[in-house]
Amino acid sequence: MRNNQKKMYGLLLFIVTVMTSASNLWASGADVNSVLIGNQFWMQENLDASHYRNGDPIRYAGSNKEWLDAASKGEGAWCYEKYGRLYNWYAVNDPRGLAPNGWHVPSDQEWKALSDVLGGEAVAGGKMKSTSSALWNTPNISATNSSYFSSLPAGLRGDGGKVFFVGESAYYWSSSEATAKSAWYRVLNYHNASVVRSGEDKEDGMSVRCVKD
Q1: Which residues, in sequence order, are CB contacts of 141 under 8 Å at separation 6+?
Q2: What proportions of the chain, in percent to the nearest 5, are helix, strand and coil?
Q3: How far apart are CA 124 and CA 133, in angstroms?
Q4: Which of 83, 118, 121, 179 would bridge 154 by S-S if both were Cys, CB 3.0 to 4.6 A apart?
């Protein structure tokens, strides 16, 4: 009986060690696939963090009620949708750090630099979108993914906490505030080749891509 208990304890200790190591690896930014675009290193995947950089958990808000409650308190939150996690801007702006060590959420100017190096806002979106017709709605206009950014259409968590535009659009937060209630973002759409810059309510949920420090 004691031997079985020792084996179970050893197994549990091994699992905890592996999970802790994986968490530390992510927090260190060492296990991140990236691509050089111009003079910036960008993550090739959307951020998939459930904890801030210091180890504190980011609030999970699965239901509309939980999502709106987080917003009413100015509290960072995430939810999981078809193509990964969506975050409100309060999580982006949290001083504990949403991005892993060595990375940060790009500013409005860094997003502009990305679109500029890809030929400008009118055409950069096509060079950033995944070419898979199984992921993007058709027609996925001008999608070449020549930048290897590999954008996915995760949509937007918007009015009343509802999710819109999955399969149609990819929304990405910047770290730059637009007004007291909104922040700048970029969106790529299935029906055109552009990257659109606009402001959105901080309580809304979007994907996050990070750029290397």
Answers
A1: 126, 190, 191, 192, 193
A2: 30, 30, 45
A3: 19
A4: 83
Over residues 18-76, the pLDDT tens digits come to 333 344 444 444 467 999 999 999 999 999 999 999 999 999 999 999 999 999 999 99
169/205 Cα distance (integer angstroms): 13
d(CA 207, CA 213): 19
- What length does the chain have? 213
Secondary structure letter of residue 31 according to DSSP: S
Coil vs helix vs strand at 207: strand
Q: What is the pLDDT of residues 139-194, one digit of tens each?
A: 999 999 999 999 999 999 998 899 999 999 999 999 999 999 999 999 999 999 99
